[in-house]
Structures are given as C-alpha cells and as structure tokens.
Amino acid sequence: MMRTVLSYIEELLISNDLVTSFLVVGICTLFASQISKRLFKGRVHASAIAIALALLASGLAGAVTGGSKGVADLPVLSGIGILGSSMFRDFAIVSTVYGASFSEFKKCGLTGGISLFAGVITSYFVGVAVALAMGYRDVTSLATLGAGTVTFIVGPVTGAALGADSVVIALGIAAGLIKSIVVMVITPFVAKRIGLTTPKTAMIYGGLVGSVSGISAGLTAVDPELVPYGAMTATFYTGLGCLLCPSILYGAACLIFG
User: Fold this and answer.
1) How far apart are CA 33 and CA 180, in angstroms?
2) What is the pTM of this model?
3) Which of 116, 151, 166, 225 has the most C-beta neighbours closer than 10 Å?
4) pLDDT tens-digit profile of 188-243?
C-alpha cells in the first residue's frame, strides 16, 4: 500500500515537473532564509546561501546520476532545467526594471557609462591574469576565462564564439559564479563605507561590478528600493561584456599575449 502511494506521488511530481520545481525552489529558499536569519543573523544574504546549496545539490546529483545537468537529471526534478533556463532568467532581469524611475537613470549620465566600460575591462584583465597564473597560455583560453570573470554569462558566450575547449568554458562559468556569490556576501558589509545609499551610487556600483544576480541579492540586503537601479546597469554590463570580450578585448589579448 505504501509503495503504491509513493509511486503515485512520484508519478504526480514527474508529470507536473515545472510545478514541482517551483515547490522545491520555494522550500530551498525558505530553508536558506532561515539559515541566514538564525545562523548568520542576516549578515549573509539568503540568496548566497541558496546558491551555495544549489551548487552542492548539483554536484551530488551529478555524482549519483553521472549526468551533466545537475539535479535536472533526476526525473522528479527535471523541471528545474526549465525553471533555470535563460528565458526565466531574462524575465527576472527585465522584471526588476519596472520599479525604477527613468529620471534617476538620467542623473547617472556619463559617470554610469564610464563605470560600465571600466568594470568590464578591469574584470576581464583580472581574469586573464588569474588564468596566466593557472598556467594557461593560449589566447582563446585566456580570453574565455577573462570573460567568465566578467560574468558567468559572458564567459560561455565568448568561449563559444572563439571555439574554446569545453573545460575552459566550464571554468569560466565557475569563475562568474564565484564572483556572484562574493558580490552577494560583501555588498551589505561595504555599502555604508562606500556610500551605497542612493539610486545613482547603486547604478555606478552595478556598472563597476556587474553580476545581476550578485548585485540584486546584495542590494536587497542593503535596501530593496536600490535593486532596480543596480540590476539595470548590471544588465547593461552583461550586454557590453558580450559585445567587447569576443571582439575588441580578445584582439587586445592577442596583441599582448599572442
């Protein structure tokens, strides 16, 4: 009888995989928020904890199933592959902008534009320097890892455009994920010291640092009203990185290291 009930529940969850994924993500988010509140007293944002738990679960699922899609390789959690797709990611990014005021964006002006270029170029060459320290010497790998340091989206875009090895692309994604988690964790601690209290400073910060997920989670812990502004320029940061890294910055790397 018990086996029959469990089989029915499993079939129900698999047949409604997307709904199941929302339920699982909701439970994980609630669990992460409780850890943040009770264990870290709010000093570490729940989003950072949730991402760390998700990465751990993905690794465990890969070890168990031998697959390459993390928990989405488990039939019951196959809907995670849809929920975590680029479509939902882009929808989440766009939705953050609806709480922003266009007049505040105009105030940022030239400073915001400069912060975008400075942030992308600095992150790229920091990533290249780290790649050199790791022993990489071919320009394609250096450019891919540098782009991954910009964001975990720019890394695979650049790697695919340049024909980089899949292992290097995976390392680029990992570099971007680490950056996102670091930004989530440190933003609440440095906010007051760097004057991160207004929409203008949030836009400049988003332009310098990038990482939409890291900026959004970090600013949520500082002031939820700042999230649309930081996320907006961070989104431009990702787009600018996708344009510059496989082209101009790759050319610069060829001139320097080629």
Assistant:
1) 18
2) 0.72
3) 151
4) 888 888 888 888 888 889 889 988 878 887 888 788 888 888 888 888 888 888 88
Length of the chain: 258
- Whole-angstrom distance, CA of residue 98 vs CA of residue 101: 8
Q: Which among 127, 133, 130, 165 is positioned nearest to 245, based on CA atoms?
A: 127
Instruction: Tell me the pLDDT tens digit for each residue of 16-52.
Output: 888 888 888 889 889 988 998 888 777 677 777 887 7
What six digits make up the tokens of 19?
A: 């709904």
Chain-centre distance of CA 246, in angstroms? Answer: 19
Contact 240, 120 (CB under 8 A): yes
Query: For 70-75, which contacts have Cβ atoms below 8 Å and span 24 or more sequence positions?
Result: 75/14
DSSP helix/strand/coil, 127? helix
Cβ neighbours of residue 202 under 8 Å, at least 6 residues apart? 196, 219, 226, 227, 229, 230
Q: Give the Cα separation of 159 and 170 in Å (integer).
A: 9
Separation between Cα atoms, residue 17 and residue 77, nearest integer Å: 6
Handedness of CA 59, 64, 68, 71 (dihedral sign): negative
Tell the burial category of 179 from Cβ atoms under 10 Å away from its Cβ (0-12, 13-18, 19+): buried
Reported confidence tier of residue 255, pLDDT bands at 50, 70, 90: very high
Per the structure block, which two tokens stand in for 135? 């022993």
Tell me the residue type at 24: V
Report the amino acid identity of residue 92: A
H or E, element range at 177: helix 166-190
